[in-house]
Amino acid sequence: MATRCSFENSNEVGVFAALTNSYCLTGIGGSENFYSVFEAELAEHIPVVHATIGGNRFVGRTVAGNRRGLLVPNTTTDIELQHLRNSLPDAVVVQRVEERLSALGNIIAANDYVALIHPDTDRLTEDVIADVLGVEVFRQTVGGQALVGSYSKSTNQGGMVHPRTSLEDIEELSSLLQVPLVAGTVNRGSDVLGGGMVVNDFSAFCGLDTTGTEISVIESIFKLQTQQQNMQPGQQQQSLVSGMRASLIDQL
Question: Using CA atoms, how far apart are residues 160 and 163, in angstroms rounded to an integer?
């Protein structure tokens, strides 16, 4: 199920959080509400960790990872690196990367099997990505945009890309990622998918401005509705009420 939330007054959820199938990172903010939303949905399944990168809160745009590993930029301090290694599961490899393009979340779009990267990424960084995340790496653009992490989002179930991506590009990217793709938006028409939402194989979080239509596209392509069908009856009823309330807010 997709959940709406915001970081203080920002709907750019993907800027302040990073989510994979084995962990979740959230930026340290003035309010605990943002962290609490993630903890309520995820705490039973994966650790939700407060973090900073280089003293900054925008962890979602500075790190990239999947269930096997987490890549952090060279601005990450030793204390922050140690905190991440202590907080994340033992199976997750945390690696600092010496990369000129240091906003790793903007230049890497990865699921558990394939990573798309910015065409100008350093060759050594490409090798580190393949090694730490255990993925096949492809240099690509999405809808003519080199920032693949900003303009696409993929899991092991499906993916979304920039709304102006051509059909030919969508088919090519879909064959590389080996998952179905759809062009879409988040936060009432924003094409910056990586900044507007975070998603894994069983949950998604997007900004408060995201419309009911956008939510339904997200839940459909990432196959989050099938997760909902596996819920207990009480959980389904609560989820239904939340969905109705959200669509009512959209109309108002």
Answer: 9
